[in-house]
């Protein structure tokens, strides 16, 4: 009895076609090979799509690309503790029940240059990479200025419409980072307190997370934000992180000894 290969070769000779070589593969083998290649292509397309989504998320977030854990120097106890809390916060996102249980807020407070914004940005970068979380980084003072100018009904640059769109984005993004909260301010105006308090309460209802960064201590922050707004913060499952170590920003101090190179001291409005 002829084998399938012999039959195929007889048919090929009759049709003037090349004969089947020893490398012939039966249908089942070919099917599995094609399925493997198709699955590889699908996985590659999915990977390429994920890379593009993550790239787009980074682009829309307005995060400093240098704010990563790899670039962070853990040189003081407060930073080491903050990084530990940050990693716990990131890892918690793998728990679906935790993510759906409610809204969470990290409150970073301390003096300038302590690494608050850097660690907040590092958290955001990791959440984008690991969980494709949508993130938005904004300075509160910038939002307040934009809100103020949105009331200029004679403006020709559509500032009102742009602010409404920005406000909607603030409500919908998964993680909102508000930096420089009440910077150089002893107290927000009443209408600003109400706007920020309402924003935080709406995000709370929608189970959206926040990171607030401020140079105030908690007592000063409560005074600066007002009771209504501060009560909104207390409604969240809040992680308070205090930064108290040395500033990590380079100074502008002249290393020269003034006695070696004396300079006349400037006095404004001098009469000569």
TrEMBL record:
<protein>
    <submittedName>
        <fullName>Flavodoxin</fullName>
    </submittedName>
</protein>
<feature type="region of interest" description="Disordered">
    <location>
        <begin position="247"/>
        <end position="272"/>
    </location>
</feature>
<dbReference type="GO" id="GO:0005524">
    <property type="term" value="F:ATP binding"/>
</dbReference>
<dbReference type="InterPro" id="IPR027417">
    <property type="entry name" value="P-loop_NTPase"/>
</dbReference>
<dbReference type="InterPro" id="IPR002611">
    <property type="entry name" value="IstB_ATP-bd"/>
</dbReference>
<dbReference type="GO" id="GO:0006260">
    <property type="term" value="P:DNA replication"/>
</dbReference>
<dbReference type="Pfam" id="PF01695">
    <property type="entry name" value="IstB_IS21"/>
</dbReference>
<feature type="domain" description="IstB-like ATP-binding">
    <location>
        <begin position="107"/>
        <end position="225"/>
    </location>
</feature>
């Amino acid at each position: 009895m002829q084998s399938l290969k012999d039959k195929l070769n007889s048919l090929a000779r009759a049709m003037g076609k090349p004969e089947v070589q020893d490398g012939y593969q039966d249908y089942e083998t070919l099917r599995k090979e094609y399925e493997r290649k198709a699955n590889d292509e699908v996985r590659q397309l999915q990977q390429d799509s994920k890379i593009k989504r993550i790239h787009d998320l980074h682009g829309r977030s307005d995060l400093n690309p240098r704010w990563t854990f790899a670039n962070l120097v853990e040189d003081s106890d407060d930073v080491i503790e903050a990084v530990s809390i940050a990693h716990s916060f990131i890892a918690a996102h793998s728990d679906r029940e935790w993510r759906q249980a409610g809204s969470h807020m990290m409150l970073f407070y301390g003096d300038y240059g302590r690494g608050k914004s850097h660690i907040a940005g590092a958290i955001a970068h990791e959440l984008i990479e690991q969980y494709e979380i949508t993130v938005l980084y904004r300075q509160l003072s910038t939002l307040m200025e934009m809100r103020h100018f949105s009331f200029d009904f004679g403006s020709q640059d559509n500032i009102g419409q742009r602010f409404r769109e920005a406000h909607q984005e603030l409500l919908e993004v998964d993680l909102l980072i508000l930096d420089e909260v009440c910077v150089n301010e002893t107290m927000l105006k009443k209408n600003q307190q109400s706007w920020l308090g309402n924003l935080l309460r709406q995000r709370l209802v929608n189970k959206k997370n926040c990171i607030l960064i401020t140079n105030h201590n908690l007592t000063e922050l409560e005074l600066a934000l007002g009771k209504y707004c501060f009560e909104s913060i207390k409604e969240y499952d809040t992680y308070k992180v205090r930064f108290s170590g040395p500033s990590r920003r380079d100074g502008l101090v002249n290393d020269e000894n003034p006695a070696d190179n004396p300079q006349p001291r400037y006095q404004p409005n001098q009469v000569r």
